[in-house]
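Summary for the funding panel

The consortium committed to producing paired sequence-structure records for every protein in the target list. Below we show the first two records in order, beginning with the earlier of the two.
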Amino acid sequence: MIEYYDFLLYATAAAVVFGVVFFPALDPVAGLVASLGTFAAGYLARPVGGALFGHFGDRIGRKRMLLTTMTLMGVVSFLIGVLPTYQAIGIWAPVILVVLRILQGLAVGGEWGGAVLMSAEHARSRRGLWAGFTNAGGPCGMVLSTAALSGSAAIAGEQGFLAWGWRVPFLLSIVLLAVGLYVRLKVAETPVFAAAAAGDRTTTFPLVDVLRNHPRNLLLAVGIGLAAFAAQGTLTTFVIAYGVHAGHSRQSLLVGLTLSSGLAVLGIIGYSALSDRLGRRPVVLGGAVAMAVFSFALFPMVDSGATAVMVLALVLGQALIHPAMYGPLAALYAELFHTRSRYTGASLGYQLAAFGAGLAPLLFSTLLAEGIGTLGMSVIIAALCVVTVLCVRAVPETNAIALDDVSKDHAPR
């Protein structure tokens, strides 16, 4: 939750304020494109972070890497909060912003795999449920970050929010960092990794092991998650920016995002638990088909002009449909790779798929700037859902795979 508070706080701020603060020389639509471009830069760095921290996580342990990634994320978010604006230091402001966003991407790229494995490798039963709590940290962080921005906007007012109010949630990151480090210092290394390390069954180059022995699993992992991330980026970032363009107030959009994110926590945990009973494949397939259909209703609902309909669109998309695609991924990705390279493989597959969340808002805002209608955006989301369906059907069911047998590879090739 704390890690995604930092990462997604940037996403919401990019949609509602960064275009004005860091790109004031551009017209509003071009400023939005530039702002979401810096947002996308973090997603481009995530696979690098996954490979980097995954390597050391598979070599020296999950816990050490989680302490490192959280420290990096907390410090970087605090620095964003004190970053001078374009009016103060000119072009250096957006340049430094991009660098800090890339560092955020490296941190969260290494964070997810380690956090999931701490849950999945400790689990003795109902692995989908327990690993799903890690994925529930995403919308929890979104609730926290949007609530912080909403509160700042309400207290500071429109002008005060643009002048200083947006900084407050970033500055709070340093407090959350202290809480997170305290929690993580109390967590033990996973018994699965400890057994592998004790038996000298780790590998010197986990990335080479993944690329040489599991290329098919890696590609399928990317394909399975791509639509979920594109939908996530659309619902949590682009729709917020598009909603402002369509005439909705920033405050109502942030309230809608907070509500849908809070309900998404329940959806993710519920669908993750369901995947222990029905299997990972049926749950993810159902979510992908539903999202393909819903994508054609999303933008007309936002364009309706009614705040209640816009909020309903966010709730349906983010809290009801998207969790079915996203919740089971935590356990599924862990089950696709063996202990020797699980941190690297799961992280890399997840973070490469996460390109969808970073690039979808940038692509759609570019299409918006070119005057292209929203129907094309819906077609793109639906097409990615078709890719997810095909990739899920190519993966055997994995929910019965044992993670603690490190002597051989149970993952389907």
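The next record, for a separate protein in the list, is shown here:
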Amino acid sequence: MRTVVRTLVRPVLSDRVPVAVQRRWLDTVSAATPPAPGIDVRPGTLGGRPTEVMVPDSTPSTGEILYLHGGGFTNGSAATHRTLATYIAATSGAVVHLLDYRLAPEHPFPAALDDALAAYRELRERTDRPERTVLAGDSAGGWLALTAALRLRDEGSPLPAALALISPWLDLSGADRRDDLVDPMLQPAWMARCAAQFAPGRDLRAPELFPLAADLGGLPPMVVQVGSREILLGEAVRLAELARAAGVPVDLRRFDGMWHVFQVSAGSVRESTTAVTALGEALAAHLSAH
């Protein structure tokens, strides 16, 4: 799978490939990964945006998870993350709502964040147990989940039961990123283009775009997963350090030899399935505590 990622995905995630081509290619490649068994996939809407709703058909629901997919704010869809979302539903026993938020460059910041916040608020209004709601996301979706939680805290709104962050991309400037880690998937030049398209003309270390500079106190418990062979490793570790220093419980798990968001291969790669199982079990515990 590492070879597949390196040969079929990494070359396409390039600053030289048009966004429209990237989107079509990633949707096509992702179609080969089967969803988890025992999950009913239904269409839905939240906050005025389409969703895919992953409902376990044999497990009583432990709660609701709003999942924000990755893709550098410019890519990603239900097609690219359906398998991962179904496995999270299967392992957590929760209903997972995979949000189709607006993408850059057509819809730059704060469109995606606005969509995430609107979806979260509506999800809490709909459910009988709003305290049993989790915000989750990978890569750029991890940025959205964390930034949304900070916004909710600052305005005094109810917070999720937990945050689940897979390989979160938290420093859009890349200023402190280590250059010695060669990720089988990510290329720094592509990430730089994505950040520029997401927040054109903005200071990427401005407070509204740089959650690692925020006071993290008062946030809910975090479950964070990251691979040892990805260039975002340092950002996940730094987040855990800062959150713990602010009194936030953090379950940080680093998976040796694994690449960026390897969890999308759950059901096909043993390590991916193991990671998603651990994630789902951790979220089930946080949900049942409320």
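Regarding this second record: Residues 64 and 133 are 5 Å apart (CA to CA). The first strand starts at residue 39 and ends at 46.
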